[in-house]
Amino acid sequence: QVQFVESGGGLVQPGGSLRLSCAASGFTFSNSLMKWYRQAPGKEREWVATISSLGVTTSYAASAKGRFTISRDNAKNTLYLQMNGLKPDDTAVYYCNAVIAGRLSDYWGQGTQVTVSS
Fold it and tell me: Residue 117 has what DSSP assignment?
């Protein structure tokens, strides 16, 4: 069964940094496009970043570009999101997901809470 376990969130001051991790299982991680999403209180879940299966190509939402870096370790079946220059608007629960057989998986993990506040 497809499973995602996100970790690394926490409370950080504006301007601070966090590194999120996503441990994936139940599918061929190294063959799959991987994505980060986030959901702020009272808002729809939104896409944050995507990385290709071999990690060669990345893309970011405008809100993340220049501050966040998505990466992956295919040997560990793990996805990462390095977040620098955090802002209060980055406060959200962060989730990872995979494109499997051409579509985004229906499985979602519990997410990891990121709170940016002074």
Answer: -
For the chain, the residue count is 118
User: 40-85 pLDDT, tens per residue?
Assistant: 999 999 999 999 999 999 999 999 999 999 999 999 999 999 999 9
Q: What is the DSSP letter of 30?
A: G
- Residue (of 98, 24, 38) closest to 68 by Cα position: 38
Four-CA torsion 91, 32, 3, 70, nearest 10 degrees:
-20
pLDDT at position 116 is 98
Query: Can you name the residues that pair with 38 across neighbouring β-strands?
Result: 46, 94
One-letter amino acid of 57: T
Q: What is the per-residue pLDDT for 81?
A: 98
**Residue 63: what pLDDT?**
96
**First and final C-alpha spacing in the chain:** 40
